[in-house]
Amino acid sequence: MANSGPSAARPVQKRRLRLRYVAGTLVLLVSALIAFLANNGDQAPSVQDYYSSLESRVGYWLLLGNTRHCGLYEKGQLSPFPVSKAQRAMEEKLYTRLDLKPGSKVMDAGAGSGYVAMYMARKGFNVQAIDITPHHLDDARKNVKKNGLDNKIAVDYADYHNLTMFQDASFDGIYTMETFVHADDPAKVLRNFHRLLKPSGVIVLHEADFSRNSKVLRDVLRLSHCQNTLEEGGYEQLVANAGFQDYSLEDLTDEVLPLWRLFGVVGYAPYQIFKLLGIQHKFTNVMAGVETWLNWGDGRYISVRAVKP
Ligand SMILES: C[S@@+](CC[C@H](N)C(=O)[O-])C[C@H]1O[C@@H](n2cnc3c(N)ncnc32)[C@H](O)[C@@H]1O
């Protein structure tokens, strides 16, 4: 006959107790991790605040190896892997859009950790890289040195709203890779670029474009300091007002989808949990990845090119 007395119940109780400890410890660990990774929930963070949050640092490092831009894929491709190959393809696209001779002097405005600048330097350009986020500048300097490109790339702190330290007509080309979207005063930035370019100098801007003034993405845009939301058709007008001509725009939205889909899929479950807990605004990158993917069509990815007459 089975023993159903108190001594048989004890191991079951013990197991339950152990399970509760394990579950409790797990919940504590996950909560601690969430609290550790969360940004401070600032409603209007500066660019530096946004990029300095641990969530941003860990996210960009984990998913993009600190190259903070989209990859370019074949239309209809499903797999986002290998991400680095697609990122090089995006850099190549920017390089061909610049259409400048080797030896040209270009500015990388918002160079991040310097990967695009290094691609351009290897193609034969002399690059002036600028940025305003201190740990990106440190990273860029280290990367440039490690790759022996210090004679081709200068890395300096500069805000593209204020470029008075650079001479008029001293550049053949200026580009932004997912940077101009952060501009507080896009018209001023373009006027600065215009002043720095030689006649026939070019700008190429590879940017997410929220010119449709998406209401659903408004929170995401504010939290990631993406102020540059223009009216539809706004880019062309803005570029023309700054004195550029020969405007051309390529819509690359379909060609960046595999990576955005990856962000959406990876972030979906955590995002739903954060939303339930009401702390989604403390995880801007997760929120941006998922919301942008869910509302695909509210923005696009564009390559803009224009020439200084
Ligand atoms: C999405 S990251 C792109 C970095 C780099 N272009 C890349 O593709 O890896 C945007 C970068 O723009 C920089 N940035 C934002 N506003 C800027 C400004 N006003 N002047 C210069 N850099 C700026 C940020 O610090 C950040 O490094």
TrEMBL record:
UniProt keyword annotation of Cell membrane present: no
Pfam families in the cross-refs: Methyltransf_11 (PF08241)
Biological-process GO terms, alphabetical: ergosterol biosynthetic process; methylation
Segments forming domain Methyltransferase type: 108-205
InterPro entries listed in its UniProt record: Erg6_SMT_methyltransf (IPR050447), Methyltransf_11 (IPR013216), SAM-dependent_MTases_sf (IPR029063)
TM segment ranges: 21-38
Protein name, per record: S-adenosyl-L-methionine-dependent methyltransferase
SUPFAM superfamilies given in the database record: S-adenosyl-L-methionine-dependent methyltransferases
Protein origin, superkingdom: Eukaryota
Natural source organism: Trematosphaeria pertusa
The entry's keywords: Membrane, Methyltransferase, Transferase, Transmembrane, Transmembrane helix
The family this protein is said to belong to: Belongs to the class I-like SAM-binding methyltransferase superfamily. Erg6/SMT family.
RNA-binding listed as a keyword: no
One GO cellular component, as annotated: endoplasmic reticulum
Molecular-function GO terms, alphabetical: sterol 24-C-methyltransferase activity
